[in-house]
Task: inverse folding
């Protein structure tokens, strides 16, 4: 159900990205462009099959991730309008820090890791980035249910020399039919003025990080879900 190569999950338009003939090729090479989204790069029928495999195999082994707003952000303030908000979020996830984790074992068993480690997955990210990316990229799986979100954050890692000057995130977003809406809001010229839907059945988003953004609470039926398959790629040059 999950192809060995990411290329086999692509639509005709998505394969043009790999071939270097799509208008989005090299889009993130422009430092002024931090984000792109497209809902026609994945084959929807194939993406739907992958999503159903994820729901059956991975839902039981997901780890809940909840970072609420700390109450001290209000009650320990000393000055008017001096509030500082750390990153907040609520979703479920699989971290790939150890192959011993139940979620990682399940992801390997269904072939998800193989697809996300495939050469075409990295080649696709490179085509959008317009530059060479390192091998050994990071992986994560996220699942957003009703009310799940990610608060404003910038994904800057100044303590990591390899990532401090920027990197690329590639997200494959697979939604169930019950999702009504979820939005990615990001900054341009210092304001949260840009918004794009991530509620389509199969969406590709790519980020040239760091920059400020957040994901609104998912709205939909009780069983609605958005799966995010995430690869983090460091620049090679």
Result:
């Amino acid at each position: 159900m999950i192809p060995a190569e990411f290329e086999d999950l692509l639509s005709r338009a998505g394969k043009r990205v790999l071939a270097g003939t799509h208008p989005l090729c090299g889009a993130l090479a422009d430092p002024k462009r931090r984000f792109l989204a497209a809902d026609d790069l994945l084959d929807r029928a194939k993406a739907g099959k992958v999503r159903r495999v994820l729901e059956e195999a991975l839902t039981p082994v997901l780890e809940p991730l909840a970072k609420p707003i700390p109450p001290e952000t209000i009650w320990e303030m000393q000055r008017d309008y001096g509030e500082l908000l750390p990153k907040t979020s609520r979703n479920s996830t699989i971290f790939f820090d150890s192959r011993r984790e139940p979620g990682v074992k399940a992801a390997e068993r269904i072939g998800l890791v193989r697809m996300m480690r495939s050469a075409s997955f990295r080649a696709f990210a490179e085509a959008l980035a317009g530059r060479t990316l390192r091998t050994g990229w990071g992986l994560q799986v996220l699942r957003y249910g009703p009310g799940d979100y990610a608060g404003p954050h910038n994904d800057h890692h100044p303590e990591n020399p390899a990532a401090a000057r920027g990197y690329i995130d590639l997200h494959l977003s697979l939604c169930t039919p019950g999702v009504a809406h979820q939005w990615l809001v990001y900054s341009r010229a210092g304001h949260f003025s840009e918004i794009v839907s991530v509620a389509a059945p199969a969406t590709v988003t790519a980020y040239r990080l760091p920059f400020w953004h957040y994901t609104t609470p998912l709205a939909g039926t009780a069983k609605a879900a958005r799966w995010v398959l995430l690869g983090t790629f460091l620049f090679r040059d």
